[in-house]
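User: Design a sequence. Structure:
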């Protein structure tokens, strides 16, 4: 019976079940020394945990992004599973390792099945940039009215109209991601070498990219606020923990703005509920016009919105908040021949500066908003 080296760096309640799966797959547990296939049980992926003698590695980890998975699997062939998966998933991975059914680019398949569209796009872009020698670039994804940049740096972040995106591909300045559906385009600069090798393996996983894209589009529809252009609170509750995990894995920050439309009850009382609804719509439209394509706007409920700024610090969040404050002041409503002034109060917090998790980040921004309202409204405050 073949042996698998068992290397456990943290307690795991499923360790016994994993060992039973090993036996079902025809493996016997062995000490973590010498050459062979290793099972590494850890909190997160770390190439420093890979023994020099390991020929293949089955990872069983609490946290794993697509980028981290591609990184460790480029160092050593294997398979990555999150510990949230059923233990039977380990059996299939072990059988594939045993029969070497990974393919020439087997590392690509390890995490794609559980990755979000953003995780997939980051991985595709990083590999494309490496293989082509590009120093800058990005990926734009098809939206309802244009292509919007989701990944990368070095290009303007403005949306690309459909005809402009097609022209870039025709001129050889961009490549299609999933050409049949034209889901997105990738631009690299300088284009020292066309990334033909990258494009060939992207084709192998087009169905996964398109499935992630379709899932995201359907979620956007189900998470759409009924009144405004924002997404709803359910979307925030799903997105925020994922965004915080992604930021932590990449060593990046993110800022959260909690926005309250000032005096909405008084606007309703004096002008009718339709005026209050228009006020919410106006604030959401102004906010959406200010944020980047990778940022997100949510209606938290009632008169409150949340804005999630990817890669932004508290200072960056406060600057965006100040711009929003000024733009809302400049956009009063018209009603019965007069103008109805609008203003907002904004609380700002950032990960990891003010909070180490999604709920604490939300609470910190909410606390800053409360102080802004108590101090007279129509202002931006960063949590202390």
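Assistant: Done.
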């Amino acid at each position: 019976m073949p042996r698998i080296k068992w290397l456990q760096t943290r307690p795991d309640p499923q360790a016994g079940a994993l060992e039973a799966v090993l036996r079902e797959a025809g493996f016997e547990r062995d000490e973590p020394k010498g050459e062979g296939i290793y099972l590494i049980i850890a909190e997160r992926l770390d190439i420093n945990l890979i023994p020099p003698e390991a020929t293949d590695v089955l990872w069983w980890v609490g946290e794993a992004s697509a980028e981290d998975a591609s990184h460790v699997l480029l160092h050593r062939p294997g398979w990555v599973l999150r510990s949230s998966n059923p233990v039977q998933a380990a059996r299939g991975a072990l059988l594939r390792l045993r029969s070497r059914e990974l393919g020439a680019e087997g590392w690509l398949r390890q995490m794609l099945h559980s990755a979000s569209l953003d995780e997939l796009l980051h991985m595709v872009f990083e590999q494309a940039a490496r293989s082509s020698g590009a120093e800058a670039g990005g990926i734009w994804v098809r939206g309802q009215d244009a292509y919007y940049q989701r990944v990368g740096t070095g290009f303007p972040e403005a949306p690309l109209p459909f005809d402009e995106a097609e022209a870039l591909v025709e001129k050889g300045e961009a490549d299609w991601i999933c050409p049949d559906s034209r889901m997105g385009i990738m631009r690299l600069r300088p284009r020292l070498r066309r990334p033909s090798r990258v494009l060939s393996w992207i084709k192998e996983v087009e169905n996964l990219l398109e499935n992630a894209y379709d899932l995201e589009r359907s979620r956007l529809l189900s998470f759409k606020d009924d009144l405004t252009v924002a997404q709803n609170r359910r979307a925030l509750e799903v997105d925020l923990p994922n965004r915080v995990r992604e930021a932590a894995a990449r060593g990046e920050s993110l800022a959260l703005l909690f926005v309250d439309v000032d005096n909405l009850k008084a606007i309703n009382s004096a002008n009718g509920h339709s005026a209050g609804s228009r006020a919410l719509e106006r604030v959401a439209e102004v906010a959406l016009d200010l944020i980047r394509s990778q940022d997100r706007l949510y209606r938290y409920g009632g008169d409150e919105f949340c804005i999630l700024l990817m890669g932004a610090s508290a200072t960056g969040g406060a600057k965006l908040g100040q711009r929003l404050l000024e733009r809302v002041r400049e956009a009063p409503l018209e009603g019965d021949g007069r103008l109805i002034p609008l203003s907002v109060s904004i609380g700002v917090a950032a990960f990891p500066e003010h909070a180490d998790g999604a709920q604490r980040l939300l609470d910190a921004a909410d606390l800053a908003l409360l102080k802004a309202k108590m101090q007279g409204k129509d202002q931006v405050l960063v949590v202390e």
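The chain has 13 helices and 16 strands. The chain has three domains: 3-112, 117-211, 223-382.
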